Structure formats: C-alpha cells, structure tokens
UniProtKB/TrEMBL annotation:
CDD domains documented for this protein: ASKHA_NBD_FtsA
Gene name linked to the record: ftsA
Complexes and interactors: Self-interacts. Interacts with FtsZ.
A single cellular component GO annotation: cytoplasmic side of plasma membrane
Superkingdom of origin: Bacteria
Localization in the cell: Cell membrane
Organism this protein belongs to: Candidatus Brennerbacteria bacterium RIFOXYD1_FULL_41_16
Alphabetical keyword list: Cell cycle, Cell division, Cell membrane, Membrane
Entry annotated with the keyword Cell cycle: yes
Name assigned to this protein: Cell division protein FtsA
Main location per the UniProt record: membrane
Membrane topology: Peripheral membrane protein
Domain SHS2: 7-196
HAMAP family: FtsA (MF_02033)
Cross-referenced InterPro entries: ATPase_NBD, Cell_div_FtsA, FtsA/MreB, SHS2_FtsA
Length: 408
C-alpha cells in the first residue's frame, strides 16, 4: 500500500477561494505541495455561502486549476470554515473508567470526548471541535495526558467550537455541484493560528489576529491549548468603504488608493504629503492629504482593535499575554499596523510567517495561502498522531445526510 496521501485543502474566503494539493508521506513524514490555485470569491460573505451556484463556480475554478496543474483527479476536499458562524464555549463531562484495574486507556479517552460531543448544543448548531484543556482523575489531579494513569472516574474540561448548521449545509451543496465530497473540516482561525504561532508562544500565552476582508478573527492560546476564539464582523473591506464615502469615490477606486497610499497611523505622515486623484479617476483634478487618508484608516482599525481588546478583557487577558499578538491576513499589510496594534492592545506585536516550519515547508509560503498550508499541517498532525482534539460526531452525521440529499 502506498504511503502517499493526496490532500486537497480549500479555504472559502470572502475575498478569494484558495486551494492547495499536497502529497503527505506517512513513512518519511514529508509533505510536498504539488499545486496551488486561487479564484475570486463568489456567493461567499463573511465565510458563509449565501449563493450556492455562485460559490460552486468559484470552487470549481480552483478545482480545475489544481487538476490541470497536477494531472490528478480530485474527489474529496478538506475545508476551512470561518466567519461569525463559529462560536466557542466551555464544556465538562465525566465517565467511569472501564477496566477493572482502573487503568485509563485510549478507549476511555475516546469515550470522554464523545461525552462532550453529545452534550446538548444550542439550536441549529453542530459541534466542530472538542479541544481538551485538562483531565481530572477522581476529581483531584489535573493532567494533560491520561492514558496509562489510574482512577475510577475521569473528567474532561474542554473548549468546544461549534458551527451554524446551515453554513455546513450550504457548503456541502456547493461541493456536490462540482462533484466533491467533504473530508476533514476545521475552524479556519484555529488551524491557521496553530500553524503560524510557534509552540513556545502558545505555551506562554498569545493572541493571533487575522485581519480579513470582512471579518477579524481572534484566537487565544495558553499552555499550548486553545483558550478562546471569536470572530468580529468587521474587516479591511470596512476600511475601503470608509475611504469611498469620505473621498466620494467608487469602492474599487478607494481600494486602489488604500493599497497604494494607505497607512495605519496618521502621526507617521507629514501634513504636506498629498495624493493626486487624477491617478485614480479620469478628469479628477483635486488632491487628498495622505494624512487625512491615514486618519480615516486609523479610526476604523482602532475601532476593530477596541473590539479585540473587549474580547481579551472578557478573559482577563487584556495586556497580559507574554507571547504578545501575532497578526496576519490581508489587512495586516498596512504600514505601521504593528505600532497601532501595540498601542491599542498594550502587547508586543509581530507579523506571522512560516519560518519556524521550514522542515515541513522549505519554500516561502505566500500570506494568502497561510490558511490552506495551516490545514495541511493540521492534517499532518492528525496522521502522525500529535494532536488530541476530536471532531464532532454530529458533524459527520450532517455530512452523510447532506451528501445523500444532493448527490444521486
């Protein structure tokens, strides 16, 4: 039997749909990314498919590019889900250990996670991940690894990520139209941040912030565990909207102005610097102050960071994460954003990269593909047995039902 596992990772972003095809060798533990593709998003808003036909065209475009580049037929896709359809909550479950000698085995570990998965969930929501925080043995000892230890009662305290069920249904219908069925499903902020943030930082306490097109995602790690995940329904597209309204220009023109001259801190710019609007709009003879443009941008980014800080305050971690903040996403490319984030959150700040994963990915990884590479790494950890979270059994049930409905 071949040790090669073909893995198709897909990120359904609001700005673009990205995909990568990789061979994961289970014997040598080597990954080879053999093809990448990107297509403009259609029918996707804030990570949720609202137009199945349009979304299927974007997915189909990426699929065709990958099949043509790799000369391989692809039938299964592994998906990243993002946006406000994701929520986190804390859960606790207990079981009696199964062996007469009270030694805890892998079966007990599996049963306790299933206990968490089957706890009552909010209406129209389905468990996506159960991520252990720690175990209690006979309600006394807090431990990370329990297999091989002894006790009559095993308790698990976990972080649960669940997803709006309709988001899954729409996703599967779009996949069915292009002849794909879903395999691994992962929360985008979790899989991406886990890959981008080195383990040492996750152990000390760190906040990863994804400045996306329509959303800003926050992922907090402590003691190498997910502590919190939240998605704010504001992103860099809101900055573009503000520029369009303030300068009375078309949205596309505002986007070009933002990319060409935008900066995140007005204090870094001289009042004398100006933008010739004729460069962006025919017949336009006026000029705009670069400082004024930066004031527009800084106001919106500061608002987004206020929401981020509010989430950290809920955890009691505002200004109290030794690993600081790691920023990524399209919006993270704004000049001086690092300084503004540091000022607003009172944390050290750095841009994310894949440099610490050169042993897996020796080539440079473009920022727009951070998420799909993160999902590839997520799968590698699962194949090699270095991750202990689980996927909700309820989600698998939904996939089967949806597949039966939409695929003859």
């Amino acid at each position: 039997m071949s040790s090669q596992n073909l893995f198709f990772a897909l990120d359904l972003g609001s700005h673009s749909v990205k995909g990568a095809l990789a061979n994961i060798d289970t014997k040598s533990r080597v990954v080879d990314v053999i093809a990448k593709a990107e297509a403009r998003s259609q029918g996707i808003r804030r990570g949720i498919i609202f137009d199945v036909e349009d979304a299927s065209r974007a997915i189909g475009d990426v699929l065709r590019q990958l099949e043509e580049s790799s000369k391989k037929e692809i039938n299964q896709v592994n998906i990243l889900l993002g946006g406000p359809c994701l929520e986190t909550r804390f859960a606790k479950g207990s079981i009696l250990t199964s062996r007469p000698d009270e030694e805890i085995g892998q079966e007990d570990e599996r049963r306790i996670q299933e206990t968490i998965e089957t706890l009552p969930t909010p209406q129209n929501r389905t468990v996506l991940h159960v991520i252990p925080q720690y175990y209690l043995i006979d309600d006394i000892d807090k431990v990370k690894q329990v297999v091989g230890m002894r006790g009559s009662r095993l308790t698990l305290e976990a972080t649960v990520i669940d997803v709006f069920s309709q988001a899954v249904l729409g996703m599967n219908k779009s996949l069915g139209i292009v002849g794909l069925h879903s395999g691994l499903i992962a929360a985008n902020p979790l899989a991406t941040a886990k890959a981008l943030v080195p383990k040492r930082d996750r152990e000390q306490g760190v906040c990863a912030i994804d400045f996306g097109a329509e959303t800003t995602s926050i992922t907090v790690f402590e003691e190498d565990n997910l502590s919190y995940l939240s998605v704010i329904p504001l992103g860099s597209q809101n900055i573009t909207n503000d520029i369009a309204n303030a300068l009375q220009v078309h949205f596309d023109t505002a986007e070009r102005i933002k990319l060409g001259f935008g900066q995140a801190m007005a204090s870094k710019i001289s009042k004398k610097e100006e933008i010739e609007m004729s460069r962006f709009a025919e017949g336009e003879e006026s000029t705009v102050s670069k400082k004024y443009l930066a004031e527009i941008i800084e106001a919106r980014v500061s608002e987004i960071l206020e929401f981020v800080n509010a989430e950290l305050k809920k955890l009691g971690k505002a200004g109290k994460l030794p690993g600081g903040a790691v920023i990524y996403g399209g919006g993270a490319n704004l000049p001086h954003l690092n300084q503004l984030v540091k000022k607003e959150l009172k944390l050290s700040v750095r841009k994310a990269n894949f440099d610490h994963l050169r042993n897996y990915f020796p080539e440079d990884v473009s920022p727009q593909f951070f998420s799909v590479y993160g999902l590839i790494l997520w799968q590698m950890e699962s194949v090699f047995g270095s991750r202990t979270d689980s996927f909700g059994s309820g989600l698998s049930g939904i996939f089967k039902k949806v597949w039966d409905i939409f695929v003859p």
